[in-house]
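Weekly puzzle thread! Below is a chain. First person to post its structure in token form gets bragging rights.
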Amino acid sequence: MVRWDDGRVSIQASVAVPRAVSGAKLRDAYVDAIGALTLGVVRFRGNSIVVGPLTLLRFGAPKVTRNAVEWPIEGGLLARKAGGRWRLQASAGRAEATVEGYTPRLPRRVYSATHLRVHELFTRLYLLRLRGRDPLPGAPAPAADRFHAGTVDVAFCLTLAGFVRRRRLRRTLIVLAIYHVACWSISGRTLGGLVMSQRVVAVDGSRLTPAQSLYRLALVPLSWLSGRAIHDEMAGSEVITDVAGLRPSP
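Winning reply:
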């Protein structure tokens, strides 16, 4: 949910969590997630979010309670002025992240198309990471089935791209990106997933967002190199065995 009031923006997101989470855990998990989800490019240093020598956002000292943590927003390159707060809270079986009264430096339209999208993606990934993978929303698909599904999808995309005579590599990458992001975010099922009876969902059972799908796809090469499903670990996703008639949570 995004709400504007006289140039100030408030944003709220939440996920269901299977267990209680303390304010200290919310704080520590957030600090860890910033570095982990950006591969160390962005870090939480002191009470600031930084990229190298640049301070993107500067916070005041956090206020930690039994089930929440809150930072006042004091400035940084991305803030036009001090004011507002960043709050993480867990109660009634849900973990919630809320920005209140933040004044972005960027014009509203530019902010909505850039910074806001990054914030929404990172917040969702943080909340899913906080929720954890236990319990999973379904039975994990066997590794062999995942490989076969991926082979079908790559072959299908190569076939589509084969109709383009010029700049075939670039067109192939574009086809791969559009195909996977669309399939994962609309139904979780690619052609290979349909053939192998599997689909991709977030660890809470919901559909992947388009940004989350693109993030997952961008991390696939790391999984190939490591031999581990890093793209699922970082994107908060899982490939599960599909059950006829089962639909992902909204």
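Puzzle host: Confirmed. Bonus trivia for everyone else. The first strand starts at residue 2 and ends at 5.
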